UniProtKB/TrEMBL annotation:
Protein known as: Solute carrier family 12 member 7 isoform X3
Protein localization: Cell membrane
Record family assignment: Belongs to the SLC12A transporter family. K/Cl co-transporter subfamily.
Name of the gene encoding the protein in the UniProt record: LOC116485540
PANTHER family: SOLUTE CARRIER FAMILY 12 MEMBER 7, SOLUTE CARRIER FAMILY 12, CATION COTRANSPORTERS
Domain SLC12A transporter C-terminal stretches: 768-1032
Keywords: Cell membrane, Chloride, Glycoprotein, Ion transport, Membrane, Phosphoprotein, Potassium, Potassium transport, Symport, Transmembrane, Transmembrane helix, Transport
Length: 1032
C-alpha cells in the first residue's frame, strides 16, 4: 500500500504544490458521481461537498409521476369545471379562444425559458426560486421567490374554496351548516359555510402533507384519475350529442331565461280533467292564481317557450355563440334572435324567477378570472429535490403537460360553443337546468362523473400547492438572504419542511377566511405572472450576455421567445387588473430593497451581475471618448492612506472626510502602499485590504480599495497615481494627510515622498488636497451647528477652492457652516472693485458666500522672518553635512525643533534663539519692537535693512529667495490667523514645490509656517483645468 502511495506521489510530483488547494481530477469526479441533491437543499454545493453528510433514503420519481402528472393536475383545476362554460358564453367562442391562447402562450414561452434555466446545471430543491435567484441574483430571487410562495399558498386556498363550492352547491346543498332564512342572506351564509369547511379541510390536508410526500403522490394519482375520467366524459358527451343530444329543456319567457329552482312546469296554464289551471309560474308573476289576476306586464305580453339546452354538435348553435355577450351586473340572461314584446317594466323585477348575471363582465376581467387555470406549470420544478434527474424531467414533463392542457382548453372552448345553448353557457350556477353543473349537463354517462371528478381535481390541486409551497419557503430560508424567515429553514430529519408547512397552512387560512373564490383568484394571477415574467427575463439576460457558464442541455430556446414571454406576462398583469399589478410590484419592490439593505451578501454569479459588468464596460468605453465637461466635473478621489505595522489605517478621519466630500457620488479609490515584494507580502496585502474595506464600511465610504506592494514607498505611490482606475473612470484628484512627523530624523524620507507626490500629481495634471491636522477633522456623526468654512483664494487654480466648500456643505456635518471667501489685494489693486467683481462672480456661480478683500502692503521684511529663514537653512545644512549617529541626530533635530517652535509661538514675551554652530548670538524682542518691525513703511526700507544686518551679521548671507518666501509665509499666516483662527475649516491655495530640488525641505518649512496656529487646514492645489462654470 505504501509503495502504491509513493508511486502515486512520484507520478504527480510536478503538481504536488497544487495538491493543497486544487484536488486531483480523479477525486473530483468521484465526488461528483456520489453527488446527491436532496439533502443539501439550496446551500451552495461547492461549500457543501466537503462536509460529510449521512445518506437519507428518499423516494425518487421520474418524469411522468414527478413532473407531468403534478403539472397536469395543477393546471386542470377549478376554472375548467366551474367557470370555463361561463367564459365561453360571455366572451363568445372567438374572444374566449383569444383569452385562452394568450394565457397558454404565456405559460408555454415561460416553460421554454424555464427548461433552459433548469437544464443549465443541477437544480436542487426549491425549483423556480433556485432558478431565478441563481440567474438574477439574491435580491430578485428573494423578491420573486417570496411572491411566488405567496401565490402558490393562495392558490391552495383557491382550490380549497373551489372544492367547497362544488360540495355545497352541486353535491350536497343540505350539508350546509348555515342556512339562509331569506334570499338576501344567501351569499353571507355561503361564505360562512366556506370558512368552516375550509378550515377543516386545511387541517386535514396539512396532516396528510406532514405524513410524507410519498403519500401525497399516492393520493394525487387517485385524484388525477378522476380528472382524466371527467375530461374523457366531456369528450364522450360531445360525441354523443351528434346523434343523441341529452334532454335538458330550458324555460324562456319571451327571450328571457327563467330559473327552474322556483317552479316545475314551464307553462302559464295546465290542462287537468278538462279544466285549465294556472301554474306555479303564473303565481310567481301574478298577484293571485285566478285567470283575471293582475299580472306582470312583460308576462302578459310574451309567451312561455321551452327549448333544448344542449341541441348538439350538429345543430349549428356555434354560429350564435361566436360573438360576445357582455352585460351589466344584475341584468337578465336573454336569448339572442328570440321574439319578445317589451312591456312597461315592473319595479319588482328583482323578485321574478329570471336568471340574473351576478357580476359585470368585460374582456379584461375574464382574462383575470381565467388565468389561474393555466398556472401550475412550476408544480414539477418546485419538487425538483424529489426527482431522479431534474435536468431531463423538468423540460419534458412541463412542456408535455402544457401542450396537453392547452389542447384540452382550446378544444373545450370550441366544443362548448358548438354543443350548448348560449343562455345556459351564460348561466354561471346552472339555475336554468335545475341547479346542475353546466359542464355536467354535457357529460356522458352522467353529470355526476363531472361533479365528483371536479371535486377530487380541486382537492388534489390544493394538496399539490400545500406540498410545493413549504418546500419553496424552506429553500428561501436556507439561503439566508431574508433574515427574518430563517427559522422556516428547519424541518424533520429527512428534510421535510415542518415549520414552513405551519406557516403555509396559516396563510392559506387567511385566504379561506376571505372566503370568496373570485376575490382570491386575481391575487394569485399577479404573483404567478410576476414569477413567470422574471423566469423569462432570467433566460433572456443569460442568453444575451453569453456568459461562459450558460450551457443549457435544452437547446430549443431563443432570447426573442423569452423576451416575448416576458412582455406577454407584463401585458397580462395590467390587462387582468392594473391596481393589483401595481400592488404586487410594490410588494416585490419592498422585499427587493429589504434584501438589498439587510440581506446577506451572496455571490452566485448571477445574470444581473453579468449585466452590470456589461453595462459598466459599455459605459466605460463611452466615457473614455474625452475628458468630462466642466459642468460634469467632480473630484474623483484617490485617497492615499498610511498603514501602521499592524496594517491598520493610521488616520481613519481621512476616510470620514472623503465620505463627507463625496456623499457617495463619483469615484473613490482608497489606495495604500506596502513596502517589500509582492510574493513575500501576499497575505499581508489581503489583510491590509480587509482592514481598509472594513473601515470604508464603517465610515460609509463608497468606493474601491487598492493596495500596492512596492520595493520603495515612493515608487508605490507613483504607481498608484499613474495606474489607479480604469479607462475614463480614473481619479482626477489626490487626497492625502500632511506628514506630521516630517521633521523627525528617522523619518527623513517622509517629506521627500510628500514633495515628490506633489510634483507627480502636477505632472499627471491632477488636483491635490492635503489635509493638515487630519485627526482634528470631524467624524461622520459630529454636526457643526455654527461656524465658517473659510476659503483663502490667492491664485486661481480652476475653481477647486470654490467647489469644495459647496460639496462639503451637502453633507450633514458641514451643512450649518457658512462659506466665507477671502482674497488678498496687493499695493496697486483696487480692493473695493475687487470685492464687487468677486461678489458678481459668486452670484453667477450660484454660490452663497461672504466676500472679504484683505489688503497686504509691501513692507519690509521683519527680523522674525530672517530668524525663521536662518533657522531653516541651518537645520537643512546640519542634516546634510553632519553624519551623526541616529540618536544624536534625533536629539539635535528635536532641539532645533523646540527652539523653532518657541521662536514663533512666544514672540510676544521673549524669543531666545541659539544656533547649533559654535558662535552663539542672542537677541531679545519686545512685543512693541516686533510689531513696529513688522509694519514699517516702505520709505525706511533701506535703512531698515542696514539696521537689521547690523543686529545680526549672518542674516546678510541668507538666500534672498528663501527670505522672500518666508516673508510671504509669515505675513500670510498672520493675516489668515487674524481672520480665520476660529473657522471650522480653512481652505488655502497650496504653493508649488521649488523647481530646484535642493530646497525641498525648505518648502516643507514654508508650508508649516503658512498653516501654523490653524486647527483644520485643507491645502488645495488645482490641476490647472477649469472645474466650475457660470454657464448652465
Amino acid at each position: 500500500m505504501d509503495r502504491g502511495n509513493k508511486y502515486e506521489g512520484k507520478n504527480m510530483a510536478l503538481f504536488e504544490e497544487e495538491m493543497d488547494s486544487n484536488p486531483m481530477v480523479s477525486s473530483l469526479l468521484n465526488k461528483l458521481a456520489n453527488y446527491t441533491n436532496l439533502t443539501q437543499g439550496v446551500v451552495e454545493h461547492e461549500a457543501d461537498e466537503d462536509t460529510k453528510r449521512k445518506e437519507v433514503k428518499v423516494p425518487r420519481m421520474g418524469t411522468f409521476i414527478g413532473v407531468y402528472l403534478p403539472c397536469l393536475q395543477n393546471i386542470l383545476g377549478v376554472i375548467l369545471f366551474l367557470r370555463l362554460t361561463w367564459i365561453v358564453g360571455t366572451a363568445g367562442v372567438l374572444e374566449s379562444f383569444i383569452i385562452v391562447f394568450m394565457c397558454c402562450a404565456c405559460t408555454m414561452l415561460t416553460a421554454i425559458s424555464m427548461s433552459a434555466i433548469a437544464t443549465n446545471g443541477v437544480v436542487p430543491a426549491g425549483g423556480s426560486y433556485y432558478m431565478i435567484s441563481r440567474s438574477l441574483g439574491p435580491e430578485f430571487g428573494g423578491a420573486v421567490g417570496l411572491c411566488f410562495y405567496l401565490g402558490t399558498t393562495f392558490a391552495g386556498a383557491m382550490y380549497i374554496l373551489g372544492t367547497i363550492e362544488i360540495l355545497l352547491t352541486y353535491i350536497s346543498p343540505s350539508a350546509a351548516i348555515f342556512k339562509a332564512e331569506d334570499g338576501g342572506e344567501e351569499t353571507e351564509a355561503m361564505l360562512n359555510n366556506m370558512r368552516v369547511y375550509g378550515t377543516c379541510i386545511i387541517i386535514l390536508m396539512a396532516v396528510v402533507v406532514f405524513v410524507g410526500v410519498k403519500y401525497v403522490n399516492k393520493l394525487a394519482l387517485v385524484f388525477l384519475a378522476c380528472v382524466i375520467l371527467s375530461i374523457i366524459a366531456i369528450y364522450a358527451g360531445v360525441i354523443k350529442t351528434a346523434f343523441d343530444p341529452p334532454d335538458f329543456p330550458i324555460c324562456l319567457l319571451g327571450n328571457r331565461t327563467l330559473s327552474k329552482r322556483s317552479f316545475d312546469v314551464c307553462a302559464k296554464f295546465t290542462e287537468s280533467n278538462n279544466e285549465t289551471k294556472t301554474t306555479t309560474l303564473w303565481r310567481l308573476f301574478c298577484n293571485s292564481s285566478l285567470h283575471n289576476a293582475t299580472c306582470d306586464d312583460y308576462f302578459s305580453l310574451n309567451n312561455v317557450t321551452e327549448i333544448q339546452g344542449i341541441p348538439g354538435i350538429m345543430s349549428g348553435v356555434l354560429i350564435d355563440n361566436l360573438w360576445s355577450a357582455y352585460s351589466e351586473k344584475g341584468s337578465i340572461v336573454e336569448k339572442k334572435n328570440q321574439p319578445s314584446v317589451s312591456g312597461s317594466e315592473d319595479i319588482k323585477i328583482g323578485g321574478r324567477p329570471y336568471v340574473f348575471t351576478d357580476i359585470m363582465t368585460y374582456f379584461t376581467m375574464l382574462v383575470g378570472i381565467y388565468f389561474p387555470s393555466v398556472t401550475g406549470i412550476m408544480a414539477g420544478s418546485n419538487r425538483s429535490g424529489d426527482l431522479k434527474d431534474a435536468q431531463k424531467s423538468i423540460p419534458t414533463g412541463t412542456i408535455l403537460a402544457i401542450s396537453t392542457t392547452s389542447f384540452i382548453y382550446l378544444s373545450c372552448i370550441v366544443l362548448f360553443g358548438a354543443c350548448i345553448e348560449g343562455v345556459i353557457l351564460r348561466d354561471k350556477f346552472g339555475e336554468a337546468v335545475n341547479g346542475n353543473l353546466v359542464v355536467g349537463t354535457l357529460a356522458w354517462p352522467s353529470p355526476w362523473v363531472i361533479v365528483i371528478g371536479s371535486f377530487f381535481s380541486t382537492c388534489g390541486a390544493g394538496l399539490q400547492s400545500l406540498t410545493g409551497a413549504p418546500r419553496l419557503l424552506q429553500a428561501i430560508a436556507r439561503d439566508g438572504i431574508v433574515p427574518f424567515i430563517q427559522v422556516f429553514g428547519h424541518g424533520k430529519a429527512n428534510g421535510e419542511p415542518t415549520w414552513a408547512l405551519l406557516l403555509t397552512a396559516g396563510i392559506c387560512e387567511i385566504g379561506i377566511l376571505i372566503a370568496s373564490l373570485d376575490s382570491v383568484a386575481p391575487i394569485l394571477s399577479m404573483f404567478f405572472l410576476m414569477c413567470y415574467m422574471f423566469v423569462n427575463l432570467a433566460c433572456a439576460v443569460q442568453t444575451l450576455l453569453r456568459t461562459p457558464n450558460w450551457r443549457p442541455r435544452f437547446k430549443y430556446y431563443h432570447w426573442t421567445l423569452s423576451f416575448l414571454g416576458m412582455s406577454l406576462c407584463l401585458a397580462l398583469m395590467f390587462i387582468c387588473s392594473w391596481y393589483y399589478a401595481l400592488v404586487a410590484m410594490l410588494i416585490a419592490g419592498c422585499i427587493y430593497k429589504y434584501i438589498e439593505y439587510r440581506g446577506a451578501e451572496k455571490e452566485w454569479g448571477d445574470g444581473i451581475r453579468g449585466l452590470s459588468l456589461n453595462a459598466a464596460r459599455y459605459a466605460l468605453l463611452r466615457v473614455e471618448d474625452g475628458p468630462p465637461h466642466t459642468k460634469n466635473w467632480r473630484p474623483q478621489l484617490l485617497v492615499l492612506l498610511n498603514l501602521d505595522c499592524e496594517h491598520l489605517v493610521k488616520h481613519p478621519r481621512l476616510l470620514s472626510f472623503t465620505s463627507q466630500l463625496k456623499a457617495g457620488k463619483g469615484l473613490t479609490i482608497v489606495g495604500s502602499v506596502l513596502q517589500g515584494t509582492y510574493l513575500d507580502k501576499c497575505t499581508e496585502t489581503q489583510k491590509a485590504e480587509e482592514n481598509v474595506k472594513a473601515l470604508m464600511g464603517v465610515e460609509k465610504t463608497k468606493g474601491f480599495c487598492q493596495i500596492v506592494v512596492s520595493p520603495s514607498f515612493r515608487d508605490g505611490i507613483s504607481h498608484l497615481i499613474q495606474s489607479a482606475g480604469l479607462g475614463g473612470m480614473k481619479h482626477n484628484t489626490v487626497l492625502m494627510a500632511w506628514p506630521q512627523s516630517w521633521k523627525r530624523t528617522e523619518n527623513h524620507f517622509s517629506w521627500k515622498n510628500f514633495v515628490d507626490t506633489v510634483r507627480e500629481t502636477t505632472a499627471a495634471q491632477q488636483a491635490l488636497l492635503v489635509a493638515k491636522n487630519i485627526d482634528l477633522f470631524p467624524t461622520n456623526q459630529e454636526r457643526f451647528t455654527e461656524g465658517n468654512i473659510d476659503v483663502w483664494w490667492i491664485v486661481h487654480d480652476g475653481g477647486m477652492l470654490m467647489l469644495l466648500p459647496f460639496l462639503l456643505r451637502q453633507h450633514k456635518v458641514w451643512r450649518k457652516c457658512k462659506m466665507r471667501i477671502f482674497t488678498v489685494a496687493q499695493m496697486d489693486d483696487n480692493s473695493i472693485q475687487m470685492k464687487k467683481d468677486l461678489q458678481m462672480f459668486l452670484y453667477h456661480l450660484r454660490l452663497n458666500a461672504e466676500v472679504e478683500v484683505v489688503e497686504m502692503f509691501e513692507n519690509d521684511i521683519s527680523a522674525f522672518t530672517y530668524e525663521k529663514t536662518l533657522m531653516m537653512e541651518q537645520r537643512s545644512q546640519m542634516l546634510k553635512q553632519m553624519q551623526l549617529s541616529k540618536n544624536e541626530r534625533e536629539r539635535e533635530a528635536q532641539l532645533i525643533h523646540d527652539r523653532n517652535t518657541a521662536s514663533h509661538s512666544t514672540p510676544a514675551v521673549k524669543a531666545s534663539v541659539a544656533a547649533s554652530v559654535p558662535e552663539k548670538v542672542q537677541m531679545t524682542w519686545t512685543k512693541e519692537k516686533f510689531v513696529a518691525e513688522k509694519h514699517k513703511n516702505k520709505e525706511t526700507n533701506v535703512s531698515g535693512f542696514k539696521d537689521i544686518f547690523n543686529m545680526k551679521p549672518e542674516w546678510g548671507n541668507l538666500n534672498q529667495s528663501n527670505v522672500r518666501r518666508m516673508h510671504t509665509a509669515v505675513k500670510l499666516n498672520g493675516v489668515v490667523l487674524n481672520k480665520s483662527q476660529h473657522a471650522q475649516l480653512v481652505l488655502l491655495n497650496m504653493p508649488g514645490p521649488p523647481k530646484n530640488r535642493k530646497g525641498d525641505e525648505n518648502y516643507m518649512e514654508f508650508l508649516e509656517v503658512l498653516t501654523e496656529g490653524l486647527d483644520r487646514v485643507l491645502l488645495v492645489r488645482g490641476s490647472g483645468r477649469e472645474v466650475i462654470t457660470i454657464y448652465s
